[in-house]
Design goal:
With about 180 residues, this protein is α+β, with helices and mostly antiparallel strands. The chain has 3 helices and 7 strands, in the order E-E-H-E-E-E-E-E-H-H. Helix content is about 20%, strand content about 30%.
Length: about 180
């Protein structure tokens, strides 16, 4: 059976040294960054770098650790103007043999483990996939330009006093009540 052709950032587990760590550095070029930006719905991906190492972990597992850095451009949630954000994140993944996960029966109830960095070990460890996943998880959910303000929308029928945000605050009426009491005194 012919071996699968590896993409940049992919490592065949059978080729990894069990005695020393394997280092890597991924720095996608502009066309590759444009593809990633399009996949993630970004306006731009100015920089992206992921460097780290893959080391043996335990008897049959592997550890991927590294640092991912990126400069992303997203639309502001208020104005849709471009917002540039710098991201620097540590990355840790554990690739464990299938029997490590045998305790997890399909359909059974169980608590979610605190360790969400463990993944089933396949024939290939992809530092590229870990980079994209880490970038996706670290993107700001609601990027806002520094001068963006939401303002306040006020809607009401004709002849009805509109309800404003400040009117819904629990203690906003106390100030008006205090003022009324002061006037009567």
């Amino acid at each position: 059976m012919p071996q699968q052709v590896l993409k940049p950032g992919e490592f065949r587990v059978s080729d990894l040294s069990t005695r020393r760590e394997t280092t890597f550095e991924l720095q996608p070029d502009a066309p590759a960054r444009a593809v990633i930006a399009d996949q993630l719905g970004l306006l731009g991906l100015k920089k992206l770098r992921f460097e780290g190492k893959i080391s043996p972990a335990g008897a049959r597992g592997w550890s991927l650790t590294g640092k991912m850095g990126a400069t992303v451009v997203q639309p502001c949630v208020v104005t849709l103007d471009p917002v540039t954000t710098r991201i620097d994140e540590p990355v840790e993944r554990m690739f464990m043999p299938a029997d490590y996960f045998d305790d997890l029966e399909a359909g059974s109830e169980m608590e979610m483990p605190e360790d969400t960095s463990s993944e089933p070990l396949g024939q290939i460890i992809s530092a590229h996939d870990a980079m994209i996943e880490s970038l996706t998880l670290s993107l700001p959910q609601y990027p806002r330009a520094t001068d963006a303000e939401l303002g306040e929308a006020v809607f009401a029928e004709d002849g009805v006093t509109p309800l404003k945000d400040e009117d819904t605050k629990p203690f906003s009426g106390l100030a008006a009540l205090r003022d009324q009491l002061d006037e009567k005194s």
